[in-house]
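Two records follow; treat each independently.
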Amino acid sequence: MKADSVSLPGSFFTATVPRIKDIAELKTVLYVTYLVLRKQERRGADIVGVTYRELATEGSQLLAEFGEEELRRALNSAVEHGALLHAASDIGGVLEDVYSLAADASRSPTVNVFALYEQNIGIITPMIAEELKEAENTYPPGWIEEALREAVTLNKRSWRYIARILERWACEGKDSGESKGDAKKGGPDKYVRGKYGHLVRR
């Protein structure tokens, strides 16, 4: 019987792996990546995700090794660091946690953010495209996806609302307590001088 195998693109090692912080997170991201790429090959889908239930079933060795609490922590950490994307989807009347590849393993992070925006918010105008590019260069990995999810959850489907979430996190610090000045090099003055500087109060 031929064993399942998938090919990992170079972007997985250059863009995804550097974001991973510990061995549990690495093993979890690798297994999610394997399941996603296998789905893509079998179904011919461009962008797919795997549910937590699928991961816990097919990756039962992960669950046995870490336990549910540690597996959940590893998944949340991977989402926080931008190695995975998370969404809550209604599947057959059941709300499921779905995880997909942050950079789609074969696409650039920019394309992925554009796809997320179009799937959840609407058509990307040239002005919004520029805003998205600038935001990617300004905020830490994962922030745009998380801000977008928060806006969708609150039914505030506009780039203006997403930008305000990002600006608030930059000014007040995100839920981890990490301020934007700590999250990216350049210090807090970088954000005072930037495009949204007028919104940042010391």
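The next record belongs to a different protein.
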Amino acid sequence: MKKKSAKGFTIIEILVVIAIIGILSSVVLANLRTAKEKARIAIAHADLKSIATGIVLLANDTSEWPGHNAVDVVDTGASGNEVWDLGSPEAGLAQTDGLYIDWNGPYIRAASTTDPWGNNYFFDSDYNIGTSTDIWVTVIGSFGPNGVGQNVYDADNIIRILAATSS
């Protein structure tokens, strides 16, 4: 008589397979989070490029930048020159406040004024780069993943320079 061999897996084999699947899934999830964040950053860069095009069109029609700022002028330490919501009428990109002469917009879609983290894109004509006070630029930007902003600029900000000066 032949002895029948047992079929199936032992509990140890099953636990080893579960552990391997757990390790692989944690690696995949970590890479997925990184990929999502990189995608959001890429979207922000693309949005800023589109907004910059809208600003060029606004400047061509009205000879003004958002917030009725002078074109190609970089302020150095000015106050009140920022536009914190590029979809606002004051910005002149998605709608007008009625004070832009020869406004022929909208120059951007209102929906494109919010970054991938849910914060408004901004315009600032006295953005200081780095820790020194000798490089001032006019930018449009996003406060980045951490959302910290409104004159509290940090390393994760995503900006596009429109004009620069050094003093």
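Discussion point: The two ends are 98 Å apart (CA to CA). How would you locate this feature using only the token line?
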